[in-house]
Amino acid sequence: MPFIETVNLGQKYGERDILKNINLRVERGEVFALIGPTGAGKTTLLRLIDLIDMPATGKIYFDGVDTAESAKVRLATRRRMAFVLQKPVVFNRSVYDNVACGLRWRGMKGSDLRTRVDGILEMVGLSADKSRNARTLSGGEVQRVAIARAIAVEPEVLLLDEPTANLDPVSASRIEELVTSIIRHYTTTIIMATHDMSQGQRLADRLGVMMSGELLQTGDTRDVFTLPRNREVAEFVGVENVIDGVVVSSEDRVVTIDSGGRFIEAISDHAVGVEVSACVRPEDITLALSRVSSSARNSFDGEVRWVVSMGPFTRVEIDCGFPLVALVTRKSAGEMGLAKGQKVFAAFKATGVHVIKRN
Amino acid sequence: MIELWHGLTRAIELIVTLDPEVMEIAGRSLQISVTSALLASAICLPLGVLIHFRRFPGKRVLVSLIQTFFSIPTVAIGLFVFVLFSRAGPLGGLDLMFTPLVMVLGQMILITPILLGLTIAALSGVDKAILDTARSLGASGFQAAVVALREARFAVMAAVIMGFGRAISEVGIALMVGGNIRGFTRVITTAISLETSRGDLELSLALGIILISIALIINIILNRIQQR
Q1: What CATH number should be reported for the domain holding residue A334?
Q2: Rounded (5°) CA angle B179-B182-B185
Q3: Cα separation, A203 vs A242, whole angstroms
Q4: Residues A287, A293, A299: CA angle, nearest 5 degrees
Q5: What is the DSSP letter of A129?
Q6: How many CB atoms lie within 10 A of CB B128?
Q7: Nearest CA of chain B to the CA of A75: how many Å?
Q8: Which chain A residue shows the shortest CA-CA distance from B135?
Q9: Which residues of B touch A85 (CB under 8 A)?
Q10: Same-domain status, A214 and A258
Q11: A206-211 and A189-194 as β-strands: parallel, antiparallel, unpaired?
């Protein structure tokens, strides 16, 4: 029995469906990330799971119990969870009172309360500010208060909505460290929403990809990134090269895909004649100035169209009959002297190609 | 002019020497109006919360109706209460006519729309995310409502003070259902109106100064609150 299960969950905003048929299962103790672009319905889904909003359709089971049973069940269930909103707001009271409120609502008081709150403030590094009015805090501090008051109630499920979206890089990495330490020290089940797929990758055990109100794919973090189910997911998880073609031969799971006269070899079960897209991650492509013999089955000559430096990497756009984006280290880009108009050879392995059927 | 000047100096003398009659009337005014403001708050704050948070048909009509009654003439309420509590009226048997209690009741009716309307307005000013946060941290409906009231506390306090100000400065109800009975239901406003008509400017001016001072103090407190 999954810890949290949603069945055909849907939400409407007026007449518009903003969430459609969400069937999600989250196990106890798991860190699950919902990834997807802004407006995909991640926040809506988290609000439904936290039982703040009522769904238009479908059911939510928490620990096997139908949460729609009664208002009492909903409150009791909500009290087993805590939700950190995307744009957290603090109560116009002291930092201490902000962290204490959830515990007070659960009837905790006296020295138990003080010990717990002080401990949490210590953990998030806000002990010195405990008497300050929370309204006077900076964005990063507000986020820490929001997380502190959520974990103070020792929730069985912690819901985080874009925990670092509105923060500067330093505050963001501090919050991410905090979330990491929560994951390590508590057995809390975490469901987080993020549009930052690398953050999802860093923190989560499993991912769910959401787009336009639908849950398109769920799976282990690695699988989602390497084996996206369709073109939208592929593009979102950073597969920049999605090359359309048709399978023209298939032999012992090695298929050849014809893409406008260029042939790509890949590992796939698709039969001859199937229209497919070949997905190649930019970091799986190697570039060379001359054709090199390697184990890579796919090697194409092309011309550099654009070169952009991205920190330690350089992003190279190549035209080899179809557009191809490669990510190479800045060092090797420098050594090759990559520049616009240059002839290069791009190579990638057949196992580096993920083939998805087009629909 | 000389008469006015003389009246003014005598009035200040009455205040400075804490003249028993002046103090007694001012004290009663405060007592009655504070009571009505507190009692009305005890009803209007929870009711305001209920109206603000519940969704029901006709809610908008109700809210604009409440706002319409902000400036209801005091004599209209005086008349209404009079009819209700007079000997022949439906509540005449309670024998409350011309008592401080019925004055309190009348003032409560007078300031209820102000308190309700301003409480609802104060709650509308509370960020919806505050309520979501409270509920997400496990607040029950009641606990979340308390959070909302506390977040809006300055605006709610301003509402209560506004209500008190309207109660203490009104004359219609106090005169019509209080009866201006010396030593029993005579309050600042009714005393001023009576003494002025009798030509006793000293007492009127003294009470007038006190009333204006109360208004001034209320304004200062309100300003302080709104600056927070």
Answers
A1: 2.40.50.100
A2: 45
A3: 26
A4: 50
A5: G
A6: 10
A7: 7
A8: A52
A9: 129, 132-133, 136
A10: no
A11: unpaired
Total domain count, chain A: 2
Last residue of a domain, one of A211, A234, A257: A234
Q: What is the mean pLDDT of chain A?
A: 91
Partner A contacted by B127 (CB < 8 A): yes
Same domain, A115 and A248: no
Distance (Å, whole) CA A182 – CA B15 = 67
Distance CA A97, CA B138 (A): 15
Give dist(CA A289, CA A129) in Å, integer.
59
Mean pLDDT throughout A303-329?
Answer: 91
Residues of chain B with pLDDT under 70: 228
Q: Are A198 and A166 in contact (CB under 8 A)?
A: no
Residue where one domain finishes, among candidates A219, A234, A249: A234
Q: Where are the domains of chain B?
A: 2-227
Contact yes or no for A182/A190 (Cβ under 8 A): yes
Listed residue (A40, A9, A19, A45) closest to A197, CA to CA: A40
Residue found by looking up tokens 């109630």 in the block:
A153
User: What are the angstrom distances between the C-alpha of B211 and each of A69, A251, B33, B71, B197?
Assistant: 58, 100, 12, 20, 18
A135 pLDDT band, cuts 50/70/90, is: very high
Three-state DSSP state, A22:
strand
Burial letters A100-125, b for 16+ CB under 10 A, else e: bbbbbbeebeeeebeebbeebbebbe
Coil, strand or helix at A57: strand
The verdict on A156 and A270 lying in the same domain is no
Pair A144, A124: CB distance under 8 Å: yes
**Chain B residues with CB inside 8 Å of A89's CB?**
127, 129-130, 133
Domain shared by A116 and A12, yes or no: yes
Q: Do A101 and B127 touch (CB under 8 A)?
A: no
Which one of A51, A89, A136, A160 would you mutate to disrupt binding with B, by most B Cβ within 10 Å of its Cβ? A89
The CATH number of whichever domain residue A194 belongs to comes to 3.40.50.300
Q: Looking at the structure, do residues A174 and A245 belong to the same domain, yes or no?
A: no
* B137 touches A: beta carbon within 8 Å: yes
Q: What six digits make up the tokens of A200?
A: 């999802």
Q: Do A155 and A37 share a structural domain?
A: yes
Q: Does residue A253 belong to the interface with chain B, where contact is any CB pair within 8 Å?
A: no
Do A206 and A70 belong to one domain? Answer: yes
Contact A230, A359 (CB under 8 A): yes
CB A348 within 8 A of CB A296: yes
Q: Which pLDDT score is estimated for A89?
A: 94
Q: What range does the domain containing A73 cover?
A: 4-234
CA angle A65, A69, A73 (to 5 degrees): 70
Whether the CB of A85 is below 8 Å from some CB of chain B: the reply is yes
CATH 1.20.1250.20 fits B2-227, yes or no: no
Query: What gap in Å lies between CA A145 and CA A126, rounded to an integer?
Result: 8
What average pLDDT is seen over chain B? 92
Q: Which one of B137, B151, B156, B157 makes the best mutation probe of the A interface by having the most chain A beta carbons within 10 Å?
A: B137
Q: What is the pLDDT of residue A120?
A: 93
